[in-house]
Design goal:
Arc Repressor Mutant, subunit A, disordered N terminus, about 290 residues, mainly alpha
């Protein structure tokens, strides 16, 4: 039999049917997982078979013990109980955590056991091209993973900047452009924003606003305490750009210093061995 459906069942055995669940208003649920089992035939052929299936359903059938076991096995292999909402949850979780983070994905698909989500994950990435509009679904996951990658780069940049200073809130330097003002923010306020972004992660604007509200050094600083989350986001975006530029310059300086040290060390090893010059003079006098 074919995984995810019963297309491979022999003709003499009754093909198992996975009935769609009915919603409270009497309409069939949109079954997202059934798209993995779609045989690709047109609707016209389905309509032609409707009459035959109705006639066949009127005839009582009795399955042998072997056929019943096969029927139950096919039901377990398929995803007839997956709805379109389950598929949406699965795609959103894959975009949020990354397609390979199954431990996180399996815990957020509502209405499905974690083991069932893990099994669906394995089948989906083998046969996702059979799903309707799979290009849009994969594109959504790709965009989410791209954002995850960018967030990781931002996190490392902030971490690198902060870790270069023993007391970043007091000593961290910020290379402001000479032709641009600080737009009301002081150096101490900017230092706090960078250090807190490193602690909370870039993008947690509500958490950043709460940290400012609870910071003792800003208890009388109405300017920074009255900034909206949008204003904080704009300021932090600019600070992150400055941090990345400063990191690049710092790394370039470190490489130049390291190269200079290697050059001096290499030059010191080329000194003549003791006694070489004296031996040369004796030989010339002979």
């Amino acid at each position: 039999t074919k995984e995810g459906g019963g297309e491979g069942v022999k003709d003499e055995k009754p093909e198992p049917k996975i009935a769609k669940e009915e919603s409270s208003n009497g309409t069939d649920k949109d079954d997202g997982a059934m798209e993995l089992e779609d045989d690709g035939e047109g609707e016209g052929e389905d309509k032609e078979n409707e009459g035959k299936e109705e006639e066949e359903d009127k005839t009582p059938r009795f399955l042998s013990e072997e056929e019943q076991e096969e029927y139950e096995e096919l039901e377990r292999e398929g995803f007839g109980k997956w709805t379109r909402q389950n598929l949406t949850d699965f795609i959103n979780a894959s975009a949020r955590f990354g397609r390979n983070e199954i431990d996180s994905i399996r815990m957020v698909v509502e209405g499905q056991p974690p083991d069932e989500v893990e099994r669906y994950h394995e089948v989906f990435w083998k046969r996702y091209k059979e799903v309707k509009d799979h290009e849009k679904l994969i594109n959504r996951i790709d965009k989410g993973e791209k954002k995850l990658k960018q967030n990781e780069e931002d996190r490392l940049a902030l971490q690198k900047k902060v870790n270069r200073h023993k007391k970043p809130l007091q000593t961290m330097s910020i290379p402001y452009p000479s032709n641009q003002s600080n737009k009301g923010f002081t150096l101490d306020e900017d230092r706090f924003l960078i250090v807190t972004m490193d602690k909370l992660g870039y993008g947690d604007w509500e958490g950043l606003k709460a940290a400012i509200r609870n910071a003792w050094q800003f208890r009388f600083d109405w300017f920074v305490k009255s900034r909206t989350t949008k204003e904080l986001q704009q300021r932090c975006k600019k600070l992150l750009e400055l941090v990345k530029e400063d990191n690049d310059k710092w790394e370039a300086q470190q490489k130049a210093r390291s190269k200079s040290k290697r050059g001096r060390k290499k030059g010191s090893t080329k000194r003549k061995r003791p006694g070489t010059a004296a031996a040369g003079r004796k030989k010339s006098r002979k």
